[in-house]
Amino acid sequence: MNRIPAIDPSRCTDCDSCVETGPRVFKRNEQTGIIEVADLQKYPEDEVQEAIKMCPAECIYWEEE
Description:
The protein is an alpha+beta fold. The protein has one domain (3-64): Alpha-Beta Plaits (2-Layer Sandwich). Helix content is 23%, strand content 25%. The protein has a two-stranded antiparallel sheet. A two-stranded antiparallel ribbon has the order 2-3. A hairpin with a 6-residue loop joins strand 2 and strand 3. The relative contact order is 0.37.
């Protein structure tokens, strides 16, 4: 199974810590202003884990594909 990082938008505080920690994985949608997960073939586990650890809202998690 493949794991994909996900963000719970109802808990996200828009602090940008995930974008700073994992810029290849997380990005702010310029049109909506919402932080999103980039569409990648494979996600760098170390970057995602660091973003999960650094997120003050604890809204980032792994989802099974």
